[in-house]
Amino acid sequence: MVFIIGATLAAFLCFLLLLxxxxxxxxxxxxxxxxxxxxxxxxxxxxxxxxxxxMPHLLGLSFPFPLFHGVLLYLYTxxxxxxxxxxxxxxxxxxxxxxxxxxxxxxxxLLSGNEKIAVFEADGKGYEWYNTLKQVMILISGVGYVLGSxxxxxxxxxxxxxxxxxTDHKTLRWLEYLSAGLAVLWCLVAFFDDTVxxxxxxxxxxxxxxxxxxxxxxFHALDLEKTKGDAPYQAxxxxxxxxxxxxxxxxxxxxADRIYAQLSSLMEEKKLYKKPELAIADLATLLGIHPNHLxxxxxxxxxxxxxxxxxxxxxxxxxxxxxxxxxRPLTLLAIAFDCGFNSKSTFNKYFKLFxxxxxxxYFEQTTN
Length: 368
Hints:
This protein is an all-alpha fold and 368 residues long. Helix content is 68%, strand content 0%. It folds into three domains: 2-212, Rhopdopsin 7-helix transmembrane proteins (Up-down Bundle); 222-303, no CATH class; 314-368, no CATH class.
């Protein structure tokens, strides 16, 4: 029964994805993943219900399927975090392990129906080497692709904090949980039977449906226009070590000083930090420079990324506005939102970082 539930849910998600307008490559990858889950769970149902023994050509078709899940998680994560268009040449190397397991199973597939049934009833006698190899491959592939996905997400988070002043819905925390969920499924594979494993798969599919269907790549709506005298802007695929990334930028100290002075003046006069969705590309366009140069200047001069820099400016503006008698009737959250914050949690976090106190503690102290 659990296989039917999982297959039905995955099929429903496939249907929803087909109806989705303006599908991205990540949507197509997710559709393929759900289709694989439908087939995998359908074949497992055939085995558990005895249908495979009545239709022996179905036996063994599920062998390579476990190896697809880690691959598709990784490809989906890569598409979501980089916006990169993955060509067939880039995807093919990741499909080699399931293709290899399929090729190694050819001697079994060429058996007659009765011979296949005999192998299954004897718990794989004669093919022990294949079962061992399959388990090793599943473990290596599962762990490797989960770790690879987590690495992409964390690199992405660094990039986002250098690109945006609001990271809500951009850090892909849910995708990190999805990767961890697949790791849990591999643990279930090691210690439990198929019923428990595929009960976990049902929850996994529900999670994907709840979070994944309406996701857009973070950089989907970026306007990739050319800044003055520079190449088209692209979402930087940087490492956390910005010093290395900027080492070859060619930005001289005097030029960096000039940019920083212009930036400070612009932020002071225009108060652009009040725009909740302010991106570094917006500022770079106004300053007539490449976003990577502006990011370098902020990192060097402020010793923090763009996200922290803008939110600290918002806290300073909040303190200035909240101190004015005319604004006393306003709630603290209303003032915070007017200063550019768009969530209470972000406001509280940066207020405490800046003042060392929570908003309540700070204003209780100032009124006493």
